[in-house]
User: What shape does this take?
Amino acid sequence: MSTTDTLALLILEDGTVYEGAAYGAAGTALGEAVFNTGMTGYQETLTDPSYLQQIVVQTAPHIGNTGVNDQDPESRRIWAAGYVVRDAARRASNWRAIGTLDDELTAQGIVAIKDIDTRAVTRRLRDRGAMKAGVFSGEAAARPHSELLAEVRAQPDMRGARLAQTVTTEEAYLVEPAEHQWQGEPLGTVVAVDLGMKHMTPVRMAQRGLRVHVLPADTSFSTIAQLKPDGVFLSNGPGDPATAEEQISLLREILDSGTPFFGICFGNQILGRALGFDTYKLTFGHRGINQPVMDHATGKVEITSQNHGFAVDAPVGETLTAPESRYGRVQVSHSSLNDSVVEGLRCLDIAAFSVQYHPEAAAGPHDSAYLFDRFVELITAHRSGAQLTGADTLAPTDRRPSAAETTTADSAPAATGGHQTNA
Amino acid sequence: MPKRSDLNSVLVIGSGPIVIGQAAEFDYSGTQALRVLKEEGIRVILVNSNPATIMTDPEFADATYVEPISADVIAKIIAKERPDALLPTLGGQTALNAAIALDKTGTLDEYGVELIGANIAAIELGEDREKFKGVVERCGAESAKSLIVHSMEEARGAADELGYPMVVRPSFTMGGLGSGMAYNETDLHRIAGAGLQYSPTNEVLLEESILGWKEFELEMMRDSNDNVVVVCSIENFDPVGVHTGDSITVAPAMTLTDREYQKLRDISINIIREVGVDTGGCNIQFAVEPDTGRVVVIEMNPRVSRSSALASKATGFAIAKIATKLAVGYTLDEIPNDITQKTPASFEPTLDYVVVKVPRFAFEKFPAADPTLTTTMKSVGEAMSLGRNFTEALQKALRSLEQRSSEFTFDDDADLATLLQQMATPTTDRIYQVQHALAAGADLDEIYRITGIDPWFLDQIQLINEVGDATREAPELDAAVLRRAKRHGFSDEQIGRLRSMDPAVVRGVRHALGIRPVFKTVDTCAAEFEAFTPYHYSSYDMEDEITGHQKPSVIILGSGPNRIGQGIEFDYSCVHATMALRDAGYETVMVNNNPETVSTDYDVSTRLYFEPLTLEDVLEVIAAEERTGGVVGVFVQLGGQTPLKLARQLAEAGVPILGTSPEAIDLAEHRGAFDQVLTGAGLVAPKNGTAVSFQDAKAIADTIGYPVLVRPSYVLGGRGMEIVYDEPGLARYIRHATEVSAEHPVLVDRFLEDAIEVDVDALFDGTDLYLGGIMEHIEEAGIHSGDSSCVLPPITLGPEVLARVREATASIAAGVGVRGLINIQFALAADVLYVIEANPRASRTVPFVSKATGVQLAKAAALIGTGVSIAELRAGSGHAAAGMLPEAGDGSQLPPGAPVAVKEAVLPFARFRTTDGRVVDSLLGPEMRSTGEVMGIDKHFDTAMAKSQLAANNPLPSSGKVFVSVANRDKRGIVMPVKRMADLGFGIVSTGGTADVLRRNGISCEVVRKIAETPEESGTVLELMEAGRIDLILNTPSGGDARSDGYEIRAAATSLGLPVITTVAGFGAAVQAIEAQRTFSWSVASLQEHAARLHQAGLTAAGAA
Assistant: This one.
């Protein structure tokens, strides 16, 4: 701490108290403490709606070096409840920066703490699991620790938390391919149900020629049906999938209608539940951009961006009939190479697939961007009356850039996030 | 895909001698490769001419060929060993070039040897600049605009198109040799001219300037299943314009947003796939324009590199090891991550600390050299440091350099305008200029404009200044002040300077306040998974991660950054010690900060601490080991001068020192006491004295007579050592010696002219002596032993002399009180054996002696340090470690059938230019300047000598013309060898006086004019040299005009890469070698075969090889 810094506290549910310095806004932040291991992408992380009611602990030691810009946010605001870093940058250094992270946190009222041994916090969360926590600064930090701890413990658990409604878009809106360097007629129309969707997700679809109607989380099947979509997408989002009964029954209606379906993260958990599998909470979750995932169909490894605390409970390595047997056979298409957690589902008899990780990246590697191409293919086939299924969503065999034009086309906009201003 | 079943034997090519740009990192990667191949049950054949490496230890391969790395020689090895495959990607550019040559000559096809880990097409796509540009384009990325030229005319044409400044890069050279920045046509002529020479394809690339852009590097791995991962991103503190090997570098990248980073990642993945690196690693360098983010791909290396060694140490992801597994068929997901054990290698390491690497330079060895940093690498070593933030890591790295004023200081008031002007030119001082300028109130943005160093880094330096100020100005050195200073990497010593306190007092206060570092773990995953590998670094943070250990530990202090005079040889001894001690059941702890080395591989010792080797940092490691299970003691004699100079202070702090005691170490360094040892043993040293002033020195020199050898005490590598011929010379030396004081006296020795120097490495346990080997220098005394070539066993010394040497060694070892290794230098003049100096520690020659005689001296020394006796180490003693030494006899009495090993030094003169662009003088002297060494080994001296010259990249000609020009005192000695050359059919070219002498002796020669007497080059030897009509040069130095003539000739030879010999004795040996290489076809033999022969001849007992 420098002499001008003021005291702040991070208090975990188990009673551990970490002293640091106030950062961002002063006050109290309550949430579930989770750690993120990404070395880049803090702005995307903070604005990822899936971090709602979570206090994000960054393992990367320097945060804020490149400041904040107006191109990288993944949604309209910072959703993380609180922020824990070791060394906060004093100065933003990047040609796109329009301000410092410190100012941005303050402006958005995010209570953060710096000068924390985030590795020590991470080791604790790893060993004991994600837990309730609070960040206290300003006057709040002066209160007795016992009071603060009681406040930490009194907050609701992430299990059973129903949060999509909080983060979803209030109004429906449309993302047009033409806005994202797509030339020519749209290839199809998609309804994306926003359960906390990241900004980049519809962009990735629009870049590939899909017109995307983004609808709020509580959208009914009939509203969707009126738009006559060629495909439906369920996004990532915060909370416990066990609480998403509404979306689960919505998805069943979609699947029953034969409309091609793609889901990411929360969307994957909802597909899992719609198919009749259970979901469960992981000890400390997967949050980072270096997560290796095995694609079981090709034996290839994808380095993925992940942010999930819940996972689908399905057997890895076998094809089985979905517990909801009308959806036919299903496979765990992807699993984590670190801990074998289910990272993707593929329906072999219907046009539905989903992944637990984030192919839209932002932040993160672009290894899995091909999944959006597969979704386009399902949609195109569906439009032409051909019947493709989740089985047709495999990774390309030749991943060289020159081998497939589509890959090249992918990687160029992907590299710049699809923003014309930044291309 | 599992391991391939069709690979039964693999040939690995090493990187040869340590040179600038290709150093110990390839011993580290090569050793890993050998270990993996052996573990996989594959027969391993190695060729590497560098004896000072761990990889050439006979136990790491089934057949270890210490032979020259040339296509011809490797072809013989292939013919003999018939390997299934060749793995060329772990031996740097040398190995890759050798593989390309073996492919081109058809050897690989002829013997059906498959190249693994790389393919020729990929190597060429990656390394051929024009082809690589195409790759970059196909990957949707940009290269700097550039043109390839093959002649100076083309170069001038290209300049019109690209404009100045322009980067000049020769193709297929390593470490950026011959590269430079041309600001005008004169520069272009100079740099491109030399570059056309250095490039094996006579090809030079000229490129638009991206000077001042941000520079990044990504380390990549790809497996046969096309899985690609980024192991590490590295950001250069110094912007484009300084070779990455000479830059301060930081991992991970600090100033990229995710979008920018992913763009570099996408391009890198596309490139590795497009180039077609089938399996293994590569690195790709980028420049990013700071104001627009425009990305330019600079280059790629389709192999394991210096950066990959750094990336391995920085992340814990063992690139070379994994590259080798990939080469034999595994895929990344099949290889477990050693550190977490349960997660696979198919992931991207994430760091929760900051790594800073700082280069170490040797400009002090080349006073004439221009210290400007350019795209030609000039550093000779590096230190790496880890911290929980940049400031901590940077300050730890700077103090790891162990150079005077390598730590930031806060009390200077340099002139701001001067600083701003100086920092416009990148030099080793730039970071200090920047720091002082910021302290003096310079505007950060102005410094950014001048230097191109990213404002984020500048702000961090500003932060260090602020903390320095706060520390100085605080009313009291209380816990908050100390904690903040420590958090930003300040040493007790820096704090002491700021507070005008003794560092020991600072330490006392700090300990009293309980402010101690914690030790964190490098785990590849930012603590997401539990780490099982105890690879630690210190930080002033909250939580300590050192777990308790079962047995008290033996701590080995390493040798820090490589430098001239203290290189990989010392790492070798440290590694051997840890291996022997672990075998003996000890828990070993390595402390070191050199990322290039085997010693800092995380599984070499029981625990690794990546730390500066200062008293403060070492004491904290010892304290951590003490509190978690106890410490047996510390070895300080193995890592060279770096740990040795800590011996006394450690002992004073109550740390048990293993092996030779600090008192004995001091005794050997202390003139008066050491003279008593000699007197007691009836030995003599050259007349000498110790001076603390010029008056002292003059009085001594007047008494003992000129020439005298002067040097500071406590040095390694002859740092500051000079032969002084007269009083003005002595006065000049004392004036320039930076520090002469009672604590740092100057030693003045009578210089023995025309003496034979003899080097000895021996073991002593208090009772018995085991003499490892006696080396006879080929050059006369006066040339530093590290630069001199030498031969073992001695070729001109009789058994009576050897017996005297052994006896003298025993007396000195006993007199000093050695428990372990001692190195003694003798000089034999007029049949009197003089003792030049004795060092009670591992020496530079320990690995050479161990390899030449098949006895592992450093391992034996480590065990002696723990109390095992030489008698117990001998075969048949019944002790657990028996067999480390032969049953009887030692290296002083090698049998007649013993192979002859020649050690030759490799010198870096071609790297250095004077400020006006000329090469520095290549004359050898008492100050060491070689960066590395090779060994030539054969049944006979002459062929061993010839092999050593080829291995040192200095092949001797078998025919052609020899230019001879020697000083007056040498004229007598050259008649016979020159006549022999003439008889062999060589043409002789000479100048004035030398030519007269030769003619009078019936040797006809072509006479050329002296350069000093000739206005233009015409009619001088320079003209002949440039025309390619001279194949070998003998030029011995003398004063006056001939000396400057000599400089011109040697400089031209260095530029042209011609072999130049500067001593008569060296010439004599060369003549023998030339005759041998004309007469005999070389055979190749592995160390294992040599050891078997030695065994048959009676020296080596079972188990000693």
Notes: Chain B touches chain A through 67 residues (CB under 8 Å). Residues 492 and 616 of chain B are 7 Å apart (CA to CA). The first helix of chain B runs from residue 25 to 39. DSSP finds 38 helices and 38 strands in chain B.
